[in-house]
Amino acid sequence: MLTCRPITEPEHLAHLQRQPSASFLQTPAWGQVKSEWRRESLGWFEGEQLVGAALVLYRQVPKVKRYLAYLPEGPVIDWDAERLADWLTPMTRHLKAQGAFGVRMGPPVVCRRWSAAQVKEGIADDAVARLGDLPPTDRDPLGARVVAQLTELGWQQQGAGEGGFAAGQPQYVFQVPLADRATGEPLTEEAVLKGMNQLWRRNIKKAAKEGVEVTSVRGAAGGVDEAALREFHDLYVHTAERDHFTPRPLGYFRTMLAALGAEDPGRITLWFARHEGTLVASTIAVRVGEHAWYSYGASSTEKREVRGSNAVQWEMMRDALAQGAVVYDLRGITDTLDSEDSHVGLIQFKVGTGGEAVELAGEWDLPLNRLLYKAFDLYMTRR
């Protein structure tokens, strides 16, 4: 019988290090980044053996000491278990005792995949509006089984927001496989490059011909390279103004690099693409075990013709391969394939990498106190 109780952050990290991978949103360090939430490391035990772990973030209801317990892209448990209730029941019992009126989690399981070629054809076809209109190249039986069990257990799937973006973590992502799924053998750089479309390969070559130089700065336990961080953030704010989104403050990234860098020297990296000394693109990459993510990106409006964004992405992929990653994750996309939709440009950029669109199980809620849960839902809707 499984039991669930708090564990120390070193115990939590040690468990994650024994796994092939886990989301960086489930690392103890991520709890330090989300400082406005109360954090807790939670462990599942078979007898005295730690067999599962989770980062739980508690968000308080205004004026009441009750919380939404949030497990972003987690928990890290055996999702292939025959009875998920054996894992989830002790978890919800503990969270309720901690004052949670509801639980939100994001099972890290895949439901469907679509190839880059399919997505490209879908965008060109006026009869296709969304990814779901296309037959997937792969349906994962694990994803279907998890969705069915959660529904039976009373969990409620949270729908994607406007344009297909979820309110929390993305349900649709774009990933580039760095290993053969059948054999597990790592791909060569040549094979990854060959999988890209002609435009991407041409842009990577052009960046090299134009003399674009790509460098990186790893996050480290000793602290953040402040000059490098400010250089990234200045370009990121410029990108936000051009593309009309609200940028995160400098302090957020300072905390992110310090916390994740202290947890593991290879966890987080700042990347810079320069042309003749001018910064033309900058990104943040994160890696946990065999999974590497492109987390944040920025690009200059000037000198776009030197293709700094393609150059930096390619160097990030090469580095992920060298570090033993089996997947390079470009994070969220919408499910829209409507060529008139403003979001479709993002998909087209990512499709050029030759990867695949991936549908995850999405985020699921379990109300523990229905009255408070409805009140909180209303409060979040009105914010």
From TrEMBL:
Keywords, ordered alphabetically: Acyltransferase, Cell shape, Cell wall biogenesis/degradation, Peptidoglycan synthesis, Transferase
Pfam families on file: FemAB (PF02388)
InterPro entries documented for this protein: Acyl_CoA_acyltransferase, FEMABX, PG_Glycine_Bridge_Synth
UniProt keyword Cytoplasm, yes or no: no
Family membership noted in the UniProt record: Belongs to the FemABX family.
Protein name as annotated: Peptidoglycan bridge formation peptidyltransferase VanK-Sc
Species lineage: Bacteria, Bacillati, Actinomycetota, Actinomycetes, Propionibacteriales
